[in-house]
């Protein structure tokens, strides 16, 4: 029938996510999970990204240990601007499945997630500060420029 899209007969949807090769796109559709991710997300990136992970751990308004984080004290931007987060763009290329050299899409997805959180927080921290000091003043303007140490890895992940 014209206008009806059909699935090619050569295309098969895997049933069990465990049958997928390591490093597969974590958002492949499977019969078991449908559109949901095939595996739990990577919680922490490899050691080369410890500076990023440490910032993420310290970033919340209220950290897991109950103390005030970088966003509560409005210190995220100054910390980033001081150089505490190195430009790890080249390290994105090292996010590969061990022994294969294949891109580890679960790790790329985790890096994109982590850099997205830092990017949003960095850009919007001034808005949060204005609002926190006096909600009647609204949100004000955020930062206008995203530093290369955040933008570079974010763009590289997005391209992959």
Automatic annotation (TrEMBL):
Coiled-coil ranges from the UniProt annotation: none
Its job: Produces N-formyl-kynurenine through the oxidation of tryptophan.
Compositionally skewed regions (Polar residues) per UniProt: 1-12
Stretches for region Disordered: 1-24
Protein name, entry field: Indoleamine 2,3-dioxygenase
Entry similarity comment: Belongs to the indoleamine 2,3-dioxygenase family.
Enzyme type, top EC level: oxidoreductase
E.C. code: 1.13.11.52
UniProt keyword terms in alphabetical order: Dioxygenase, Heme, Iron, Metal-binding, Oxidoreductase
Catalyzed reactions per annotation: L-tryptophan + O2 = N-formyl-L-kynurenine
GO MF, one annotated term: metal ion binding
InterPro entries: Indolamine_dOase (IPR000898), Trp/Indoleamine_2_3_dOase-like (IPR037217)
Metal-binding among keywords: yes
GO biological process terms, semicolon-separated: L-tryptophan catabolic process to kynurenine
